């Protein structure tokens, strides 16, 4: 593999050897904590069900905070080239790109990514750079940036948009900065409860046996070595099902942790809704509440997602929950498609 | 530098070129999260004030969980050789060694360290391996293993011993496992409070301006990048003075964080005291409560250490607080000295 330079010219050598099809396309990229997905959809898109996804490519992590900027950009550029190759298109076919990547937390991050994207795509191509949470919202709203999305997987974030383009977020800053409703947060609290029960600071809990069994450890002493060994968030977050099972079996400590998690997640949503006044002046306006991530999957008796919705709708009865049927990368593509279409209609929201 | 092998024979080459003084000595080693200190004291020690420390050597971190076992052992062996060299003694002068190192959390850790130490020192040398908290206790009790020590620096742990050699600990498992009373815990909660105030999940707080000023950042958004940059506990724990100042200036959020910290630290002490029944059957027996670490230093109006003592003595009026005058490495040496002396008296507590 050649070394990646500012923009990886050699990545696009594929365009020379290809006899492309006709037709404009849109690229949607979702770069989460784990991997990066790029989909290619036709720009002249009939609203069919299922959506006509021309191609899909997958690559590693593209969060610049985790892997560094060079590596993140190389991953993004390669995954876009691969999606185009699979769809038998070239860059000249592309009319819009939406890059929704974790780690875009600041207008400076956003502008730097836009500048870099502009070196790859000519000036008539519409470019959008967003936090990956925005793609998750769009995956539930068919590309419309309106409403609130709650993501609760390994990490958690709430992100919202008004119809006139104002946006707000809550949480999403990682465990050091208090994302306690996530699978990581739930699992870390469960581990803490086991240590506290063991050393006499906290009540006995069935989590002790369930977690030690799950990890194949003999004593809570060994948890210290286990956490030091590899402090990756995903590894700790994998304890989520054990906590849910213990709560379902009636363990009070586990139940308390899940109730805390519901409170944390609902408070993120409510903070966004309140700041954006998504529920209108009378507090009853309808708005989409898109629910994404393994913590919110309704596959258990202890249904965290349902509890969060109940908690939010008590304050904001107009929130209508959506569990998206398409993946966030498709959401990103729909967002670009929708923005291009709106622009033709004279909508105010355009980026770059 | 030669590569370190199982025991670093070349480290002891210094013994060949040296004309040693006479007299038995004891080595005390304190290996904390930051560095490792070794002191050498005479075995026939008059209880003078100040204590007759023959030499002192300092090296880097020797927590095997942080730097790996090889590196930890090399650091320990070198720092002991250096202390002996400075005191103009050889290993043949050594009658006892006490190694008190962070990361010794399990009898297996302890036995492995004892086996390794035995390869360096012949069978008549008394060897002791303990968690570094034990050296901190001994630094307040002149080497007697009785009472409870509370350490609250970057991390926190409570450790206690009964007169008949039973021991117990609480906390000390790191932030993932809930050490919330430490300087790291206090600082992480303060950072979280700033993010929560910013995104609307929590109340406004003066911590926002004080922390941003202290770190030279313009907006709470930038805290995410700042924490990702380097997640070392010590770097985050350095915010402690900012939190204390904000609390002293009357900020409610900062005050709540410090009160939480007091509750957490006192609960660690109480868990240890209760499990060991240090306060006797009537709950009024006297026992030392040794207070160590920057969180507990009484140098501010908001005196966390004093609040913890008040909280503990409400439940256990016999606890008498001690702020040690010697460093933990001297505590480790005194522990070995005391154990050797006790053994001559027929005391039950001997190790290896």
From TrEMBL, chains A, B:
Pfam families: BcrAD_BadFG. It is an enzyme of class 2 (transferase). Coiled coil: none annotated. Signal peptide: none annotated. One of its GO terms (molecular function) is N-acetylglucosamine kinase activity. Its EC number is 2.7.1.59. Residues 27-336 form the ATPase BadF/BadG/BcrA/BcrD type domain. InterPro entries: ATPase_BadF (IPR002731), ATPase_NBD (IPR043129), Euk-type_GlcNAc_Kinase (IPR052519). Belongs to the eukaryotic-type N-acetylglucosamine kinase family. This is N-acetyl-D-glucosamine kinase. It comes from Oryza sativa subsp. japonica (Rice).
């Amino acid at each position: 593999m050649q070394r990646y330079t500012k923009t990886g010219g050699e990545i696009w050598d594929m365009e020379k050897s290809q006899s492309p099809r006709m037709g404009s396309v849109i690229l949607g990229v979702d770069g989460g904590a784990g991997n990066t997905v790029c989909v290619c959809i036709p720009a002249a898109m009939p609203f069919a069900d299922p959506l006509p996804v021309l191609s899909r490519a997958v690559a590693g992590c593209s969060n610049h905070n985790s892997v560094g900027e060079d590596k993140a950009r190389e991953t993004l550029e390669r995954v876009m080239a691969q999606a185009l190759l699979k769809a038998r298109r070239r860059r000249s076919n592309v009319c819009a790109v939406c890059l929704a990547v974790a780690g875009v937390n600041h207008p400076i991050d956003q502008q730097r990514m836009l500048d870099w994207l502009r070196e790859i795509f000519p000036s008539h191509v519409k470019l959008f750079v967003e936090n990956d949470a925005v793609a998750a919202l769009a995956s539930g709203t068919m590309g419309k940036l309106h409403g609130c999305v709650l993501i609760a997987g390994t990490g958690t974030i709430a992100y919202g948009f008004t119809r006139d383009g104002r946006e707000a977020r809550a949480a999403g800053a990682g465990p050091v900065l208090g994302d306690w409703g996530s699978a990581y947060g739930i699992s870390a609290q469960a581990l803490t409860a086991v240590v506290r029960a063991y050393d006499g600071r906290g009540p006995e809990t069935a989590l002790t046996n369930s977690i030690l069994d799950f990890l194949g450890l003999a004593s809570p002493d060994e948890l210290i070595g286990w956490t030091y060994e590899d402090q990756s968030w995903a590894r700790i977050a994998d304890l989520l099902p054990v906590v849910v099972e213990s709560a379902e079996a009636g363990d009070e400590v586990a139940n308390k942790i899940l109730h805390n998690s519901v409170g944390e997640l609902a408070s993120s949503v409510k903070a966004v809704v309140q700041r954006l006044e998504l529920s209108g002046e009378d507090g009853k306006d309808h708005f989409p509440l898109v629910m994404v991530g393994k913590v919110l999957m309704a596959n258990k008796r202890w249904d965290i997602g349902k509890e969060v919705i109940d908690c939010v709708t008590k304050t904001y009865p107009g929130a209508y929950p959506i569990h998206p049927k398409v993946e966030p990368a498709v959401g990103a593509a729909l967002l670009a498609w929708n923005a291009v279409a709106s622009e033709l209609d004279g909508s105010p929201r355009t980026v770059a």
